[in-house]
Amino acid sequence: MEEDKRERGQERKMGESLQSHGQMGQTQVNKEDDNKKKTDEELVHLRREIGLLPAVSFIMGTVVGSGIFIAPKGVLINSGSVGLSLLVWGLCGVLSLFGAMCYAELGTTFTKSGCHFTYLLETLGPLPAFLRLWVEFLFIRPAATSLVSLAFGRYAVEPFFAPCAVPPMLIKLVSILGVTFLVAVNCWSVRMASHIQVSLTFIKMFALVLIIIPGVIALVKGKTENFQNGFEFESLTLDRLPLAIYNALYAYSGWFYLNFVTEEVKNPNRNIPLAIILSMVTATVLYVLVNVAYYAMLAPTELLLSDAVAATFATCALRGLDSVIPILVALSCLATLNGGIFVSPRMLFVGAREGYWPQIFSTIHIRRHTPLPALLLMYPLMVIMLISGDISQLISLTSFSDWFFIALATLGMLIHRYRFPLHPRPFKVLLVIPVTFTVVSFFIVSLSLYSDPWNTGCSCLLTLSGVPVYYMTVYHFCLPPTWRRIFNYCSKQLQILLEVAQQQVKTC
């Protein structure tokens, strides 16, 4: 009898359990049905709103920015002569094109957003990926934004103070206003940020053409004295060459920006390679022509004495438009700022989505469909570094870590090719291109340890500071449960305050 009672009790429990599971399963099915019934506009996710023209504009609008108006001075100082500086500009353009083609393959092989983080995670593992995420948040994006925004501030106020010196605090104030405006736009709407990028890119193309035409006319008229004895190799030293290359590469930086937003690009297998190659070929030709125009109108000593090369050029070559060129250059810098502010938070967003960054930063605004928490996280550090930053030091500080991880990503691509030869690759470059790019990138990075040990050492230490953070946060070593509960509570309150939610649809 007792055995019969036990059996009936077990059968009753099993029945209740099955009924409970059935109800849970039915609830899950109902939720899935509800999601299916929702329109695309109601679901919380990042939309594919970037076509070919906005894709080209994001790359061109980011690459062709403050660099071509800041870096010529640094390239000339460290290369030592006009001819060598032009050679550096051309070779860095080819190197950037090689890197861009490698990233076009990576972007079509791994279709998630996140750029460097995603590629390092897929090829070399979580620790290198986290360290790239760490340095992007800690100093690469704030420093890069500071560089461009300071150039924007200088060129924006230059016409109102010429020929007097511009107050440094006013430059920083205008720079902060520019950054704040663009962060607000990117928090508000992806489509608005894209439209601004396209418009500003056309403006900056006009500015470059306006600089190139007088230089070409001057050359045709025989104004070539600055190019005579252009290659003076005795003034070239090994310790300064990497700094010349870094300055030129800084001007070309941004060719990988489209890879940050792969999930938001329409037809990525076609548009990513096409946009990258078209943009980089155009940028290289324009950069070399702009530098030729500079040297046609300005003596090397004049260029070295100028803090705003384009403004000095306009004073000499475009007397009627000398107040217009700085404004056009300021708008060009604004486009670069907008591109960086648009794409960089996507890396934090993807890192959080994959579990390598706090989950609050993988949320999206429920109506604006923008990664609001990731955008807001970057803003304070941008402003702090903008107030305290020095341009030449910032270039050296960011270039080492940036190029080290780029080289690691292309090395990971080669390793992935070897380990998974049958993995689908919609766009595949010749083997010689990633090999050449990886070797040259590691050579430049190692040479910088010799040429600028202080800034390179600081960059190394800041990068390695992410190792203990990785083991404490990702693996929750040494973190008391109370801290985790407090953090989870704060994240929940922030989510309610910012009106953000987790992504409901996978877009990759």
Automatic annotation (TrEMBL):
<keyword id="KW-1133">Transmembrane helix</keyword>
<feature type="transmembrane region" description="Helical">
    <location>
        <begin position="370"/>
        <end position="388"/>
    </location>
</feature>
<feature type="transmembrane region" description="Helical">
    <location>
        <begin position="202"/>
        <end position="220"/>
    </location>
</feature>
<feature type="transmembrane region" description="Helical">
    <location>
        <begin position="169"/>
        <end position="190"/>
    </location>
</feature>
<dbReference type="InterPro" id="IPR050598">
    <property type="entry name" value="AminoAcid_Transporter"/>
</dbReference>
<feature type="transmembrane region" description="Helical">
    <location>
        <begin position="427"/>
        <end position="449"/>
    </location>
</feature>
<dbReference type="GO" id="GO:0015179">
    <property type="term" value="F:L-amino acid transmembrane transporter activity"/>
</dbReference>
<feature type="transmembrane region" description="Helical">
    <location>
        <begin position="461"/>
        <end position="479"/>
    </location>
</feature>
<keyword id="KW-0812">Transmembrane</keyword>
<feature type="transmembrane region" description="Helical">
    <location>
        <begin position="327"/>
        <end position="349"/>
    </location>
</feature>
<feature type="transmembrane region" description="Helical">
    <location>
        <begin position="394"/>
        <end position="415"/>
    </location>
</feature>
<dbReference type="Pfam" id="PF13520">
    <property type="entry name" value="AA_permease_2"/>
</dbReference>
<feature type="transmembrane region" description="Helical">
    <location>
        <begin position="82"/>
        <end position="104"/>
    </location>
</feature>
<feature type="transmembrane region" description="Helical">
    <location>
        <begin position="240"/>
        <end position="260"/>
    </location>
</feature>
<feature type="region of interest" description="Disordered">
    <location>
        <begin position="1"/>
        <end position="38"/>
    </location>
</feature>
<feature type="compositionally biased region" description="Basic and acidic residues">
    <location>
        <begin position="1"/>
        <end position="15"/>
    </location>
</feature>
<feature type="compositionally biased region" description="Polar residues">
    <location>
        <begin position="17"/>
        <end position="29"/>
    </location>
</feature>
<feature type="transmembrane region" description="Helical">
    <location>
        <begin position="50"/>
        <end position="70"/>
    </location>
</feature>
<dbReference type="GO" id="GO:0016020">
    <property type="term" value="C:membrane"/>
</dbReference>
<feature type="transmembrane region" description="Helical">
    <location>
        <begin position="138"/>
        <end position="157"/>
    </location>
</feature>
<protein>
    <submittedName>
        <fullName>Uncharacterized protein</fullName>
    </submittedName>
</protein>
<dbReference type="InterPro" id="IPR002293">
    <property type="entry name" value="AA/rel_permease1"/>
</dbReference>
<keyword id="KW-0472">Membrane</keyword>
<feature type="transmembrane region" description="Helical">
    <location>
        <begin position="272"/>
        <end position="297"/>
    </location>
</feature>
